[in-house]
């Protein structure tokens, strides 16, 4: 796996603008709606791969203490420059090696970052160990099936077969590129179950992205944002459609301790 650090460091100064495009704003909105429904009664909340802290502000605004983990030097610099305040603690390093107290967090988020780790299953097990009994782990990753469908739609047949065979993708931006794991609903569900998490749910965000394509999707969102987001909410509620979502959002809860534990 080629490291994502150089890519994210190069992207850091313009990261906010990078997300100011219709399809990214749409899946951000959908993801936040899902996260809001499962926020814990108390923190701290761990944001694994926090970047510049896009999710930190809203969580701090709701009264949570947030622990952010970030390894890309450019992202770290921007997160420190943002000065999120005393409720935010930044841990510099990889989520694969960061040492956090076991069973200490109410929620662990890894939104768009898990797919860049060497071993996503092992990393989810670490996340599960960080949340207290009854706490929740949430991850957002790129969908293998959605990418393959997009490539087939665009006539890029050889690349579609290659992505399907290797289950790896490449993201290129800002003159850099990084490899990522591509996942499907069944595999992500299994990773969560094997980590000891229960009440696992995997939903697909932006189910219309693959069939419509980016330009038509942007047009639909531009014409009637509320109506299209309403459609997307209906589609993400259907488990059978999860894999065609551009992003997969997985949630799982660490079982509550029994009497005497």
Share of helix, binned: 40-55%
CATH superfamily: Vaccinia Virus protein VP39
Specify the CATH class.
Alpha Beta
Strand content: 15-25%
Uncertain spans: none
| Main sheet: strands, sense, barrel | 7 strands, mixed
Cα(first) to Cα(last) distance is 40 Å
- Strand segment count: 9
Shape: globular
What is the second-level CATH architecture? 3-Layer(aba) Sandwich
Radius of gyration: 18 Å
Put simply, the count of helices is 12
Total number of domains: 1
| Biggest sheet strand line-up | 3-2-1-4-5-9-8
Mean pLDDT: 93
Secondary-structure element pattern, one letter each: HHHEHEHEEHEHHEEHEHHHE
Class by SSE composition: alpha/beta
User: What do we call the CATH topology?
Assistant: Rossmann fold
What does it look like?
This protein has 261 residues and is of the alpha/beta class. It has a single domain, classed as Rossmann fold. It is built from twelve helices and nine strands. The protein has a seven-stranded mixed sheet, with helices on both faces. The chain has a two-stranded antiparallel sheet with strand order 6-7. β1 (45-48), α4 and β2 form a beta-alpha-beta unit. α1 (5-11) runs parallel beside α5, α7 packs antiparallel against α8 (157-166) and α11 (214-223) crosses α12. It is globular, with a radius of gyration of 18 Å. The protein starts with a helix and ends in an 8-residue tail after the last strand. The model has no long low-confidence stretch (mean pLDDT 93).
Quick recap of the structure?
The chain is an alpha/beta fold. The strands form 2 sheets. It has a 7-stranded mixed beta sheet with strand order 3-2-1-4-5-9-8, with helices on both faces.
